[in-house]
Amino acid sequence: MPNEAADLELAAVTKAYGETIAVDRVSLKIPAGTYCCLLGPSGCGKSSTLRMIAGHEFISDGDVVIGNQVVNDLPPAKRGTAMMFQNYALFPHLDVRDNVAFSLKMAGVGKAERRQRADELLDLVDMAKYGDRLPSQLSGGQQQRVALARALVTNPTVLLLDEPLSALDPFLRIRMRAELKRYQREFGISFVHVTHSQEEAMALADMVVVMNDGRIEQVGSPREVFNAPKTVFVAKFMGGHNVVPEGGKSYAVRADRIRLAQPGEAGTEAKVTDVEYQGMTVHVAMTRKDGTDLIATLPESEFDRSPVAAGDTVSVAWQPADRHELAA
Ligand code: ADP
């Protein structure tokens, strides 16, 4: 596979739709061979960012650089990128082989050569047997593999994926995300994957880019972003954290680091508002005297040692090292 991996850089990239600033001076360096997830709530500018990289959307300001080339004015097919869409966008009337070969046909590659190349790609995604089928004769997971083969057939330097797993049922989604990760490693190129699911981003990414309101809130590995959120937004969006105001500052404390103190132990008083059994863990929701809501996630066995119920007054505690200061 002669794929050439390339670095991708966004330099103060901005997208305005009339008065709406969808992407606000986003700067980001994605080294070649990175699995990068753009993560954030609906409307935060993820897809607009991806479409500007792909060339499906004009860049209002700033530069997109792939390898050493500013690609702002290049059409999509000349950027070395390929895009995989949410609904796969397979042609229903073309068989699998011709779907995969389609962009080679557009590029003027002869029939025998493009069919051979399509078959190579189908083999890579374990779909060699299905070349003669129509998309409607495939399962969701198989359609996704065909879409992936079709995107990779042009030897892109960067693959762009817009919510690629959202059309799949939860079971298949988990299986296909493992496959995406495996293909990214095998091809050695960067995948830039848009998702609103923090779980998906954590499972897949080398680099998580958390976006909010057209800007980047934080960039880091899944562990960095989860364990040391920099802002209130990131702590809340990643989940599993309490945001605790203290002394005029805000801190993040992971829900699994909050303990219910034993009688006589130091801690802050809180009232239990709800207890939810979750199987391996028990979620205890509490409100502190100052009105701060807290959630403690306790292993079932620990909860069982001193169970509490809604209405109980308890004392909560955490280690100082488990507290992370958040930017205002
Ligand atoms: P996300 O992918 O994170 O959901 P988008 O990039 O699709 O976010 O959208 C970011 C913002 O830009 C939203 O406020 C959205 O309504 C707006 N927007 C997106 N596409 C268009 C468009 N073609 N015209 C006008 N506004 C748009």
From TrEMBL:
It holds the Pfam family TOBE_2. The keyword ATP-binding applies. GO terms for molecular function: ATP binding. Residues 8-238 form the ABC transporter domain. The keyword Nucleotide-binding applies. SUPFAM superfamilies: MOP-like, P-loop containing nucleoside triphosphate hydrolases. Keywords: ATP-binding, Nucleotide-binding, Transport. Belongs to the ABC transporter superfamily. This is ABC transporter ATP-binding protein. It comes from Jiella mangrovi.
